[in-house]
Every structure is written in C-alpha cells, then in structure tokens.
Write a structure and sequence with these properties.
transmembrane, about 120 residues, mainly alpha, Spore_V_AE, Sporulation stage V, protein AE, membrane, 6 helices, transmembrane helix
Length: about 120
C-alpha cells in the first residue's frame, strides 16, 4: 500500500504543477520556487508532516519535499545552535541530497557528450 500512497501523493503534486503551468503564465522556474516555498510553509505550520507520513517518498522526493527538508533542518539547527542554526540548519539538512546531485551530475557529464537542442 505504501507504493500506492506514494504514487497518489507524487502524482497529485505533479498534476498541480502541470495545471499551474498550463492554466497560468507561470514558467517551470516559477513553479519550482512556488513548490519549494510551499513545502517550507506547509512544514512550518505542521501540514506537510501528515502528507509525508501518508505518501512517503511521493511527498519527500518532489520539490515540496526539498522545502520540507530545508524547514526540518532549520528547526533542528535552531534547537541545537540557537539563532545561528536558523542559517546553517537548512544547509546541513539538505547537504547530502545537494552533494549527490552535484556528484551524479558531474559523472553523467563525464560519461555522456551533451548536445544542444536545435
């Protein structure tokens, strides 16, 4: 059932993003910022945690999940380091994911020859 829940939550997030791009003049970059910001705000008011508990990876992998990780890291940083943790906690909370994206992106750039689209 966990796979079905992840599919439902992840699919709904994607549907919302597609509707925003099709129904408005928002670009994919705008939707990216909206989703990450929404993930942070929903986490801050306590609404994203139940979505994560229900949807698992369907809620943590998409862009709102990145905002969720930023917010959770910031909360933890503030608890551990006080005011300074507000600035360092989000970075610490997402460092592994960002590092993995950089490393795997670099490996793909070495293995494959990128081509520009005509």
């Amino acid at each position: 059932m966990a796979y079905v829940n992840a599919f439902i939550v992840g699919g709904l997030i994607c549907v919302i993003g597609q509707l925003l791009m099709d129904g408005t003049k928002l670009t994919s970059a705008h939707v990216l910022v909206i989703f990450v910001t929404a993930g942070v705000m929903l986490t801050a008011i306590g609404l994203y945690e139940p979505i994560v508990e229900f949807g698992g990876a369907g809620a943590t992998i998409p862009l709102p999940g990145f905002g969720y990780s930023l917010a959770k890291g910031t909360f933890k940083g503030v608890q551990q380091n006080g005011f300074l943790g507000a600035f360092t906690g989000g970075i610490e909370g997402t460092a592994a994911g960002i590092s993995a994206a950089i490393v795997f992106g670099y490996i793909m750039a070495i293995l494959f020859n990128p081509k520009t689209k005509p």
